[in-house]
């Protein structure tokens, strides 16, 4: 069975240790990459601020924000469909 060739889709994964590292994740999302961010290494207030900034950027590009687990989120541009299995 031959499967049709597809384009590669890069995923940017970040585990920031400071809030300043979020800027690279924001830039990647603006460039239409899927971005997975694990905020476990940030203080709770900074983690919330980072999640809010990422969600705002995702909204600005008409993308989605998806909670994956404890302090881990995935942000996708509008050309990526996320289907969570039940």
Notable features of this structure?
86 residues; alpha+beta; Translation Initiation Factor IF3; four-stranded mixed beta sheet; 2 helices
What does the model show?
- The protein is built from two helices and four strands, in the order βαβαββ.
- It has 86 residues and is of the alpha+beta class.
- The protein has a single domain, classed as 2-Layer Sandwich (Translation Initiation Factor IF3).
- The chain has a four-stranded mixed β-sheet with strand order 1-2-4-3.
Quick one: how many beta strands? 4
What structural class do the secondary elements suggest? alpha+beta
Q: Sheet with the most strands?
A: 4 strands, mixed
The residue-averaged pLDDT reads 90
SS field, number of helical segments: 2
Which parts are unreliable, with pLDDT below 50 for 5 consecutive residues or more? none
What is the share of helical residues?
25-40%
GO biological process, one term: division septum assembly
Protein name: Cell division protein SepF
InterPro entries: Cell_div_SepF, Cell_div_SepF/SepF-rel, SepF-like_sf
Function: Cell division protein that is part of the divisome complex and is recruited early to the Z-ring. Probably stimulates Z-ring formation, perhaps through the cross-linking of FtsZ protofilaments. Its function overlaps with FtsA.
């Amino acid at each position: 069975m031959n499967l049709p060739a597809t384009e590669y889709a890069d995923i940017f994964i970040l585990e920031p240790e400071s809030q300043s590292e979020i800027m690279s994740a924001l830039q990647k999302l603006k460039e239409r990459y899927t971005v997975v961010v694990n905020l476990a290494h940030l203080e709770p207030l900074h983690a919330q601020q980072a999640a809010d900034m990422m969600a705002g950027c995702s909204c600005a590009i008409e993308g989605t924000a998806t909670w994956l687990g404890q302090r881990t989120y995935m942000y996708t541009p509008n050309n990526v469909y996320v289907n969570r299995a039940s």
